[in-house]
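Practice problem: predict the structure.
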Amino acid sequence: MPMSRFRYTLNEAVGDPKAWFYTWAIADDVTLASSCGFCGQEHQRLTYEVACGDVTLWICQRCVGRYPVSGVIDGDRFDPPSVRAYIHGLTARQKQRTCSEAIRKVQAALPDLQLSEIVVYFERNLQLSPLHAATLFTGMAHLDEPIDPRIFEVQTRSIAHQDEFGTLDEKERAVVWPALTPQQRRRLASLGFAPGGTRTRRSRPSDRRELPAPRMPALSEPAMLDPLSEPAAKSTA
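Answer:
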């Protein structure tokens, strides 16, 4: 039987989402083991704290976009579009901090691993090239505390980066593969670059066009409202 898809249903105990307010705290779980207090969806990376009276919950990004949770900044209540725009900026900065912390952890644990070039590259691009991803993810596998490589974006939009992935050896491709989106995997598989033993859907031969924009928003985008003082954030990086 085909696997049923998760249905994003609001927990009845939540009541009216409009009665809840964002506290502006963000939890960034690098093991992707968090769950949503609104819909129950598991395996979440980013969750956002909301409060209703003395009760607090952590909700996923999908519920942020789906439900009109309220937001107050400096005593002013904002409409849902403005709240989501502000959260977008907070999210972008949190993702960047978490990824940078992950790289520093690998540096501290494996000082002989040459990561200085990767640090500079990530600071400039907020993504990793396939070669840099292979190096970093191999090092991350040796950490005592696990970090899921999917917290990073891997560049495969350009033909140059697609070819760079193709130059990786079998082990390096296998290390990077889990961090790629389904769309990235299909494109690279159509080029014959999928790691051996990987099951992929059949696709038409590639015309070598560049991929569309990545799934994550640009990490350098600022919040669209006047920023608060640095929001509370939990990070397990």
